[in-house]
Amino acid sequence: MTDFTMEKGADGVAVITWDVKGKSMNVLSTEALQALSDQVDDALADEAVKGIVITSGKDSFAAGMDLNIIAKMKEMAGDNPAQGVFDGVMAMHGVLRKIERAGMDPKTNKGGKPIAAALPGTALGIGLELPLSTHRIFCADNPKAKIGLPEVMVGIFPGAGGTTRLARKMGAMAASPYLLEGKLSDPKKAKAAGLIDEVVEEPLAAAKDWVLNAKDADILKPWDAKGYKMPGGAPYHPAGFMTFVGASAMVNGKTKGVYPAAKAMLSAVYEGALVPFDTALKIEARWFTNVLMNPSSGNMIRSLFINKEALDKGAVRPAAVPDQSVKKVGVLGAGMMGAGIALVSAQAGIEVVLIDQNQEAADRGKAYTASYADKGIKRKKITEEKKEALLSRITATTDLDALKGCDLIIEAVFEDVGVKAEMTKKVEAIVGEDCIFATNTSTLPISDLAKASERPEQFIGIHFFSPVEKMALVEIIKGKETGDRAVAKSLDYVHQIRKTPIVVNDARFFYANRCIIPYINEGIRMVTEGVEPALIENAAKMVGMPLGPLQLTDETSIDLGVKIAKATKAAMGDAYDDACDEILFWMADEGRLGRKANAGFYAYDEKGKRQGLWAELADKYAPAETQPDLIEVQHRLLFAQVLEAVRALEENVLMDIREGDVGAILGWGFAPWSGGPLSWLDMIGSEYAAERCDQLSAAYGERFACPDLLRDMAQKGQSFYGRFGKKTEAA
């Protein structure tokens, strides 16, 4: 059965319904596009049809395009994949342009049939580009629906005419948040912005009524009419010129030039605004092809769309374990982390018992949810009733007996083995034998903590990132004796709170902190070597890291770095590298503890706003007369991270390369344009990566030594996704 079906009504309206069987939301495939084209041809040729309405058989319209289309386009073109992609994209433009022109006479612009879109809910990507080609867009009054073009978030841009149409419909300035930032809106805000035309109770009925009464002038798009002028001004109009200059500055300021999609999209809008509409579509198709042929975009699509979606759907969940959805969770510790865990759990509809040593602290932890809800009410995101419902799910108490009936415990107390062991014993004596006990620790080995448990097979690590409600990743850590049910329980819980999980085996610092700490340390080490702090910070941002290592140190706090250093030295002994200790300990002694103290590697004003790098740092660590080049600094910062990712894979801490890439991007913001550390190594090639390791280790030390796995791959000419990817595809 085709994804598109058509029913011609006695009233003269042909309703084309999009309904992809077996999927919760519609996605566009090559076959579906052809079916849509054939049905539009049929309706336009039928004299009994007065107009067409395109709608959905689901409670949403569409989620986007089946990205496998792109792979098929490349395969079909053989030795010239770029031509295959371009031809495929132009075929898509042809179908949507056919809808837009609707059979009207090319000279008089008359005689066409009205075509409307009736959206029952969410319309994203091609799900909005298709309606934009129709003559009127009606959307249901559904505040949960999302309308927008989020493609830039996964490394591409709207390439089915959405870029060109939206820019011409709204003007470059008004369209920029939706194109360059992937902004999503609810229907009423989308109508106010000009993305859609009507918000109604019954979009299908309203669309039918409109097509039966539409005139020739109603269906002629502004850009097809004589005398069309772009809203806000074309590039060489005085107002338009300033818009495009500003947009170029904004794009380069935000992307630092490492995200090809944003630059290509802006180029498509700029160049397209100088030519007729059909030529503009060809320009858009060429830039879209250019982006799709860039390895950065392919990696971003794979990591942020395909792999992330697979992990969200349970790709690494033990298959034999039945559903382990959490009904009641106990959270031990009502500090910042515990309060955040309680909030996201309550948002998921889970009953929460929030425990702390004294009632005041427990109440303060619950108040965190109240404060969060108040901000939502102020922004009209939630209602007072929803706030009360949220708070009613959280019981803040000091009474451990309140944990009876919990099927999951998450311990988020002080990072001390003794304290955690004591809580484990106390709680296990109260909860049922089937209850899973999870510890939220960022550094302490799970297998060591599990020694305090009577049921180590039900003991697991769940590492949240701060702030919990904002961070998308949760790292699940298996101890040596952790069983499958504990893993399944943790994964099902993470699914309930709508976050992306990765599962790793136990080791000091697990996966995320194992990689991010060397990044921080490399930046600090360079300061002690005389590298300009501004060069370090800007090199990091220009290679796609969200924060430079010095700013990240300030954000996480310098005294935390001191605690980690002391604990790591005690655990590792002579193997510990103390190169950063002097500067960290000195700054801690000086009271420069980071942002929380309004003093760190950066200077801050009284309100805690950064005022630039701390100038007096140069008095103790003077910058060298000769500074390294930008690429050298960037490679030190990147290789410090990616080599730990390789070692984690080599040591079976990381069990799935998808988790290595997705976890890095979502967990600490590793250069999203690259697709993640393992994708980046594939991009530069294992042979070059191994060679670069040898150069860096010779210059800076054994921490850059090439891992045996990478050396073996270099000798065999292998890539990570070539060597390990087939295993994940099979899974």
Task: Provide a compact summary of the structure.
With 731 residues, this protein is of the alpha/beta class. The strands form five sheets. Strands 14-13-12-15-16-17-18-19 form an eight-stranded mixed β-sheet, sandwiched between helices.
**What's the number of helices?**
31
Give the strand content: 5-15%
Provide the low-confidence segments as ranges: none
User: What is the radius of gyration?
Assistant: 28 Å
Q: Quick check: average pLDDT?
A: 92
- Work out the oligomeric state of the chains in this entry: single chain
End-to-end Cα distance: 28 Å
> Helix proportion of residues, in percent?
40-55%
Largest sheet: 8 strands, mixed
Strand order of the largest sheet: 14-13-12-15-16-17-18-19
Shape: globular
Number of strands: 21
Which class of secondary structure composition applies to the elements?
alpha/beta
What features would you describe in this structure?
The protein has 731 residues and is an alpha/beta fold. Helix content is 50%, strand content 12%. The protein contains 31 helices and 21 strands. The strands form five sheets. An eight-stranded mixed beta sheet has the order 14-13-12-15-16-17-18-19, with helices on both faces. A six-stranded mixed beta sheet has the order 1-2-4-6-8-11, sandwiched between helices. Helix 11 packs antiparallel against helix 12 and helix 14 packs across helix 15.
